[in-house]
Amino acid sequence: MNDFGLLDGFANALTPTHLLFAAIGVLLGTAIGVLPGIGPAMAVALLLPVTYAFEPTGAFIMFAGIYFGAMFGGSTTSILLNTPGESASVMAAVEGNPMAKQGRGAQALATAAIGHFVGGMVGVTGLVLVAPLIASVAVDIGAPDYFAIMVLAFVAVTGVLGASRVRGFAALVLGLTIGLVGLDPISGQPRMTFGVPQLADGIDVVIVAVGLFAVGEALWVAAHLRRKPTEVIPVGRPWLSRDDVRRAWKPWFRGPFIGFTFGSIPAGGAEMSTFMAYVTERRLSKNRKDFGKGAIEGLAAPESAASASSAGTLATMLTLGLPTTAIAAIMLAAFQQFGIQPGPLLFEREPALVWTLIASLFIGLVMLLALNLPLAPMWAKLLRIPRPYLYAGILFFACVGAYAVSGSPVDLVVLLAIGGIGFLMRRFGLPVLPAIIGVILGPDAELQLRRALQIADGDVTTLLSTPLSITVYTVIVLLFVIPLVLRRRRPVEPAREDELV
Amino acid sequence: MATLLVLVTVAAALLLVPPAIGSLAGGGDGNQLKGLQVMVPNSPGGGYDVTARAAASAAEGAGVTGAVEVFNLPGAGGTVGLRRLVNDEGDARLLMSMGLGVVGSVYSNDSPVTLRQTTPIARLTEETEILVVPADSPYRDLPQLLAAWRANPAALPVGGGSSIGGPDHLAPMLTAKGAGIDPKAVNYVPYDGGGDLLAAVLGGKVALGVSGLGEFSDQIASGDLRVLAVTAGARVPGVDAPTLREAGVDVEFTNWRGIVAPPGLTPEQRIELVAAADSLHASPEWRAALDRNDWQDAYLPGDAFGAFLAAEDERVAGVLRELGLA
């Protein structure tokens, strides 16, 4: 039993039945990713009862296909319509949508698809090679370490505040405030819920992103449509130019390392991965001035990080039985339905299942690339729809998506209220991105800080008690100090302001 | 564009297949409950959801009911769904899947509607909670742990997979109270579900973990975790640990799940629903579902469940009141 390896897995995954399951999975996943409101977690949960009749390997091949397919499909609406359907694809809208508006929609979709392919490949390779290692490290990371990483993320946020620091911080605080809504994570007391029970679970980051990006922009366009001639967004050539590839290939390969790492630790997940990948590229890129206006690097890295984070999530779930995201939790429940317990013993007990599943991930990724690359120019044609109809459609999909999350009309009201805020932010020149990052990071940072302090019974020194946290704080200090030292050495050359962060 | 349409159509068709399969099952002989809806007050894949869907498909398969529509109305620990249920007074075709967690949520969310307003139909399953420590923990058994806990409760962080008022929070509070430790002094650290908690327990971030048995069974089998006690009234097969009572703490506690109906049903309507629950419980399909999910049968119909629910409500309210949360 134990000598069943990856090659046997490929032999098993390439049987017609398993190929069919993989094909159904990636097709469904792509569709689910494109449709707003239905996430991969919900889709797998709803399909679970149907799969009792199947043998487990086939079912899991399908589930994994849905998971990765949704990552591919999720960026489509983000890029074209500025309407992210999943939290993993929020960052895709930031650079992808400006690209689409410049008539580079097909290139943006292709960049995203190749990014997901590369990220998935690197991530699944990571799953094969270092899964047990990274999984054991994941257990050692505690609340003080997470909080240190959050602080680093907040320092990185200052790089995306935009031209005016004051406006950037105002937007960040707005996001942090929205993140406060809901039950206090430690004491269970309601905060800013105004007696509305539907607000007790907080406001989903997807609703905030769709509200600020899509609804806010639709309102803004509607308010200005009469003053501007209605022009149709150009579609342009479908192929990536040599320059595009030259700029994107490094981010494609850098993103997965960030994504896999954050995906495999609890409290990481796709949001943190994509955000960290984005700010890293923004810092490293020579074309920093293009960021926010459709920089291909800022799309390539988060997309490859998103798929790699899925592989990281699977690594932790398979080797530790430890689900780090909602979909992993449901897949874990699915394993248990079939009487299989993922965890330390899974690779020994069920080698055929595990290696077939991993082999089918490679096959599924190839299928997804083959499916999504040719679709890119076709999706991009959506933008030929004249603007009034296009934005009406966007509003419709945004509302359907928000409603579908939990079937609650309150979510629609919240969406429209946030859309109104998004409109006002555009009116007064507040950048939208820091607000969304505030919603992503704020609740996590608060939870980890309070958890760390609670475990240590209020002792503040616990925040500096682990090697990892000390390392991260050192990096933060260096990020602040090095630019200052460099500036002092060469006082002749005035440093650009955005290099100080 | 044509390929696009084909793709969307295929996807839509595939998405519609599961409900179609559901409605084909069952068949009809005239004696079934028709048009039954089951509301799940948490999201797809959660505990109440899995229970509801398994029960619905068993009931359809056994011919107890016609096609059952299971839908989710998540929010605020189940109290959003509870509000809808209480609002649909007199609707004898609506049931809600629920459990101990909802009892606590009513208090922690300060819900204006309570479970006492509902019509209890049946308790279906239960699962013991376990007190676990990592393999390298200094605590070999419960008395050792209790001694350290009594000496300095604040220095012994207790991790649980549920928020305040949930089963993993109530179990250590009741245990502490039973062992003579002030529940207010317990340093409870909530984690987001069993997986998140597992990492914290294995990594030694918390001194004691409290969870349902199912989520940790493999780590217990592999020896990574040591169970100090189970909270159920009797020992659990396959787990080498005493009950709390055997270990000297007079507390019995399980995390149970059941179904309730809206208020204002006529006695006939209520009897009809309880009879359907009886038939479900007797069916081989439900037996198979219990086996497949490793659930403990804890069937308790009608009035007996009502009395149990009232007692649990009282007990939970007592603990939370003591903590200043209700």
UniProtKB/TrEMBL annotation, chain A:
The lineage of its organism: Bacteria, Bacillati, Actinomycetota, Actinomycetes, Pseudonocardiales. The keyword Transmembrane applies. The chain crosses the membrane at residues 20-48, 60-81, 108-134, 146-163, 169-187, 199-222, 317-340, 352-376, 388-406, 462-486. This is Tripartite tricarboxylate transporter permease. The keyword Magnesium does not apply. Residues 19-437 form the DUF112 domain. It comes from Actinomycetospora termitidis. Keywords: Membrane, Transmembrane, Transmembrane helix. InterPro entries: DUF112_TM.
Automatic annotation (TrEMBL), chain B:
It comes from the Bacteria. Pfam families: TctC. CDD domains: PBP2_Bug_TTT. Belongs to the UPF0065 (bug) family. This is Tripartite tricarboxylate transporter substrate-binding protein. It comes from Actinomycetospora termitidis. The lineage of its organism: Bacteria, Bacillati, Actinomycetota, Actinomycetes, Pseudonocardiales.
